[in-house]
Amino acid sequence: MTKAVISSTGLWTPKDSISNDELVESYNTWAERWNAENEARITAGQATAKPLSSSSFIEKASGIKSRFVISKDAVLDPDIMAPRIKERPDEEISILAEIAVAAAKDALNNANRAAKDVDAVLVACSNLQRPYPAISVEVQDALGMEGFGFDMNVACSSATFGIASARAMIESGQARSVLVCNPEICSGHLNFRDRDSHFIFGDVATAVLVEAEDMAPDGAFAIVNTVLKTKFSNNIRNNFGFLNRAAPESANLPDKLFIQEGRKVFKEVVPLVADIIKEQLASQEIDPKQIKRFWLHQANLSMNSLIAKKVVGHSVPEEIAPVILDTYANTSSAGSIIAFHKTKHDFKTADIGLICSFGAGYSAGSIIVEKR
Predict the structure, then answer these.
(1) Separation between Cα atoms, residue 175 and residue 166, nearest integer Å
(2) Helix, strand, coil content of the chain in percent (nearest 5)
(3) What whole-number distance in Å separates Cα of residue 150 and Cα of residue 316?
(4) Could you say which of 125, 156, 181, 356 is catalytic?
């Protein structure tokens, strides 16, 4: 049977970044204004005052210091506090496809591969720009590829599920080279008027080139094993979609955007993911201490630290469980791929690493890789 490997990765990052201080200034301006306008209702007990935020609160709660965004000015404008991305005509490439193509080209360049050599493209992300035509088919067209494409959504685990799907296609003989693209415009589903979540997400795009081992370049990462797990939970949810479309101003309605029960998520997801990883490593007869690097989903620093500790048995340094969420924030499915992309270059032959994502669903995907 043909084995699948990760030949290369690619990354696209927006030019604009928002610091915690900038985000807090915008939010607090809006909150203070809202409190003043509703002072009588607040005094009468008919409304609850909006709490103020701070950079120290954000960093302590998440480990995030800044985030990249596609639409900075509109997000920071207290009268808007949402991205404003100009709508494009149907004849022009969509923005989600555009950033996916940018990441895909980076991955192709890193493998010295031409788009014509790729058989399929998957666009796997949390929030697709439209229901159809598939963004992946648009990416395929923009790259000049033959073959086929399809979209998939498993929230923050979309990338790992996409890699597992690509691996299955290669090992079944359906394809020999598959691009998995993860364009994540997370700012579009974030409620920037919610103190407890306005800081969480950033925008980015990643790509992973998965290929048959016999055509891969030197230094590829063999996909040793994949584990996928889902378990339904309402603790992370987004209800905004084309079935409840409304005027643009309604995009800030809290029940139609990202919401989560953060403490419940932490309490339930940490043991779930740690157990998945430990069981996976045991099934492959791999001691956790053999893992040179854990590329974990970049959602929350405390969550990642505790998962790694539960798996290894003690606290691990950032060298073993790298952190990129301090500058990128939570980029949904792209987070673990960014960490992999940026910190895989010191691996030597036979070194073992683990890519793991987890999030809404609940969903979790764990992939063991070995440097060829």
Answers:
(1) 8
(2) 40, 25, 35
(3) 38
(4) 156
Active site annotation includes 181: no
In whole angstroms, what is the distance from residue 53 CA to residue 30 CA?
A: 11
Contact assessment for residue 205 and residue 182, using Cβ atoms and an 8 Å cutoff: yes
Q: Does domain 222-371 sit in CATH 3.40.47.10?
A: yes
User: What is the sign of the dihedral through the CA atoms of 243, 244, 246 and 249?
Assistant: negative
- Give residue limits of the domains in the chain: 222-371
What is the chain's pLDDT, residue by residue, as a tens digit (372 residues)? Answer: 799 999 999 999 999 999 999 999 999 999 999 999 999 999 999 999 999 999 999 999 999 999 999 999 999 999 999 999 999 999 999 999 999 999 999 999 999 999 999 999 999 999 899 989 999 999 999 999 999 999 999 999 999 999 999 999 999 999 999 999 999 999 998 999 999 999 999 999 999 999 999 999 999 999 999 999 999 999 888 887 777 665 555 455 666 677 778 788 888 888 899 999 999 999 999 999 999 999 999 988 888 899 999 999 999 999 999 999 999 999 999 999 999 999 999 999 999 999 999 989 899 999 999 999
Q: Which of 107, 109, 239, 252 is nearest to 194 (CA)?
A: 252
